[in-house]
Amino acid sequence: MAISRRHFITALSSGVAASIAPRSGFCAPQPAQAASMKPIALGIDNFAVRAFGWKAPELIEYAKGLQLDTLFLSDIDCLPSLEDAALKDIKAHADSAGLALYIGSWSICPTSARFKPTWGTAEEHLRTGIRVSKALGSPVFRVILGSMDDRKTPGGINARINDTVKVLKACKGSAMDAGVKIAVENHAGDMHSWELVRLVEEAGRDFVGVNIDSGNAAWTLEDPVDLLERLGPYTICSSLRDDMIWNTPEGVSIQWTALGDGLVDWNTYMDRWRALCPNVPVQIETISGFSKAFPYKTEGFWQNYDKRPEVLAKFEALATKGRPLEPFKAPEGVDKKEAEKAFQKAEVEKSINYCRKELGLGRRAAKA
């Protein structure tokens, strides 16, 4: 706590003007003293309040009410229209609310189980996202490869990485011309952190980076702080939440939580964030209320994963600190949909409050 407050107080007293993440260049490691002088921007990923079914205008008003710095529209379906005139109106709305927009969509791997032809071919999907991101002033377009199911497909995850790299390379010119970087997420257990690093390096680090997801770190049996060490230098966007992990006879169970309700040491995490990627906003994507089992101690599990003992040891050390959590259940007599909305809203707002009070995040908060 003392470290985080020191960073916060330094930011208040320095009077340093802070700008949202620049369009060019990746965040390189910086000395801790220099990093501490710029408050980290704070925002939300719209998936955190998915139950509301809000479109971009409603999401902008919600983020404005929370006095956030950024709004991550991680699904372009939430945009009422992709026409240039409509996008211009959305950007003007966000600008008037004091929000920087980050834009995203889903799988660009044509052979992934998660790929859908909604936006055409993988390349057409990616080019559409680049165009939309440029129009809305987003420095990035977030995409995914797929999910853990892709680890079991013919050729395994390495084949899916190769297919995704081909799509990225085919669209490099469009991204470079637009000044938009492609942020590939570690999504739903699809890639270990070192596999995602390979994807970025092979596609081209000059236009491809990482959307880091701290919750998904646990789904590849990695400690979120350990994963940040590998992905931090490549990180250009974020979707963050906490993890509760507990041991079971066959392995572990994992339940995502609001920040501060899980096992992640967020003071250490943010100290490393300030050193590795201080210009990247912290954007909250709470997906709480259910658990998933990972029977990694059973025969055959590691056929689909890359077992690295030193990485697993850090994850197991984290799991020893955990405890089982009950899943979310709507109270008796309450409409389930309304209960889900209230639960999601409470989780993301609790996380925002934690980020401000305990971690000193948020540029508007720093100026208050």
**How large, in whole angstroms, is the Cα Rg?**
20 Å
> Share of helix among residues?
40-55%
Total strands: the figure is 11
Order of helices and strands: HHEHEHEHEHHEHEHHEEEHEEHHH
Written overview of the protein:
The protein is of the alpha/beta class. The chain has a single domain (32-367), classed as Alpha-Beta Barrel (TIM Barrel), CATH 3.20.20.150. The chain is built from 14 helices and eleven strands. It has helices at residues 2-14, 32-35, 56-65, 84-96, 122-136, 156-170, 172-178, 193-203, 214-217, 224-231, 266-276, 309-319, 336-359, 363-367; strands at 42-45, 70-73, 100-107, 140-144, 181-185, 208-213, 235-239, 242-248, 251-257, 282-284, 291-294. The strands form two sheets. Strands 7-6-5-4-3-2-1-10 form an eight-stranded parallel sheet. Strands 8-9-11 form a three-stranded antiparallel sheet, with no helix packed on it. A hairpin with a 2-residue loop joins strand 8 (242-248) and strand 9 (251-257). It is globular, with a radius of gyration of 20 Å.
